[in-house]
Design goal:
about 425 residues; mainly alpha; two-stranded antiparallel ribbon; 13 helices; globular
């Protein structure tokens, strides 16, 4: 019977890891996919490799933390209790993924364990309070940093970086002629021929590719890989910590099994969440994608250094929303008005302009002759309030489902040690 329970627990852990791959690939590589830098398949493969690197190195420490410090007595993680916790984690994450909303795996996992701790009376309130405080503060910091960049610094940054996605392939491979090495006669007489050694290929810029575009693309992809690595350091614990904490599954075996399931989720169900974070919330040019990735990864690194299970899904999403809102509410500086670079009569309604037409406060379009105007994408292209509200609501609802369901289950059927 014990072996059957273990097999069932591993299957459920794989189900959780599969949903982790679906939920966390979007925040890491959604900006790159939205900027047409990576295909969804390539992003999924990069996610799988980087996630494994983070899980196998630093992730084992988080597994120990999540399986021991959230409760006073780790013995509550019986095999039956571990399976129940994993069921609520996986079920809640599936709800988020099916809605196209990448939910926070850390918040969901911690919520399910909190339910077990409350029902068993072993919850470590001090540790939970510290984690919750940072979960509230970190998205707010990310949102307002992104708003400030989008509202006051994005245009200057965009001109400085000047990274535009060109048509055609980023890189091509050219054939180069290699003559080979000289063939010398046995008697030491002069060279009589050159022995060919083949015609290798070398990478080269695409026909429309600039060097800045290559550098910017490399930076964006590198940041995505870093975020995926960070995800592995914290999120592998969400899938295997209950089983490893119960002693039913070895650490290395759990990491390998969990990472395999994450890879499958990254290559399948993550396509919807990458579409949501890359296209549905806000228009992401390459420069904007780099800003979002930089802000998110820096915040996650700080949280990880503090030992906090990082909910980078929420941080990255709020950074995307903040940047889009900041760009859609850009203000006109006094210097710009004095120079005549823009019209001084700019209102919130005027920011909805899509190009040449100026939109007044009543929403009516007009084109005053000889009036300088700020050009740029439409406000509705930069920030979609409806999608943003749905994302934030679902990201809070999913952990609540896991917490409430776990508490009720362990209260009605106490299977914890």
């Amino acid at each position: 019977m014990g072996d059957l329970f273990l097999i069932g627990g591993v299957i459920i852990a794989c189900f959780v890891a599969f949903n982790i791959g679906g939920a966390t690939t979007g925040p890491a590589f959604g900006p790159a996919v939205g900027a047409d830098v990576l295909s969804k398949t390539t992003a999924g493969m990069l996610m799988a490799v980087a996630f494994f690197g983070g899980a196998y190195t630093i992730g084992r420490r988080v597994v120990d933390t999540l399986g021991q410090e959230l409760v006073h007595d780790p013995s509550v993680f019986t095999l039956e209790a571990s399976i129940t916790v994993l069921l609520f984690i996986g079920g809640a994450l599936l709800v988020g993924n099916l809605s196209g909303t990448p939910a926070s795996t850390s918040m969901t996992a911690v919520g399910a364990i909190i339910g077990l701790g409350l029902a068993s009376g072993e919850l470590n309130v001090a540790v939970v309070g510290e984690i919750l405080a940072w979960w509230i503060l970190s998205p707010i910091i990310g949102f307002w940093l992104a708003v400030m960049v989008g509202r006051y610094g994005y245009e200057s940054l965009d001109r400085l970086v000047a990274i535009k996605r060109s048509d055609g392939p980023l890189l091509v491979f050219e054939r180069i002629e290699v003559r080979g090495w000289p063939v010398i006669r046995p008697d030491g007489s002069p060279i009589v021929e050159m022995k060919p050694i083949g015609v290798p290929l070398r990478p080269a810029l695409g026909p429309n590719t600039s060097r800045r575009e290559v550098v910017g693309t490399a930076v964006l992809v590198s940041i995505g890989v870093l975020m995926a690595f960070s995800s592995g350091t914290s999120n592998i614990a969400n899938a295997i910590a209950p089983l490893v904490g119960s002693g039913a599954l070895a650490m290395n075996a759990g990491i390998l099994i969990g990472c395999g399931a994450v890879a499958l989720g990254a290559l399948t169900i993550a396509r919807r969440t990458m579409e949501t974070l890359g296209n549905d919330i806000t228009d992401l040019p390459l420069t904007a994608a780099i800003v979002v990735a930089l802000l998110s990864s820096c915040i996650i690194i700080v949280l990880s250094a503090l030992g906090i299970p990082a909910s980078f899904v929420v941080v990255a999403t709020l950074c995307i929303i903040g940047l889009g809102w900041g760009r859609s509410t850009q203000t006109v500086s006094v210097a710009e008005a004095v120079r005549g670079d823009v019209s001084p009569q700019v209102s919130v309604g005027a920011l909805a302009q899509s190009g040449d037409a100026t939109v007044g406060t009543t929403g009516a379009a007009s084109s005053p002759p000889n009036a300088p105007r700020r050009s740029g994408p439409a406000r509705s292209d930069l920030f979609d309030p409806g999608t943003s509200v749905r994302i934030v609501l679902m990201q809070n609802l999913v952990p609540l489902l896991a917490t409430g369901g776990s508490y009720l289950a362990f209260w009605l059927f106490p299977v914890g040690g």
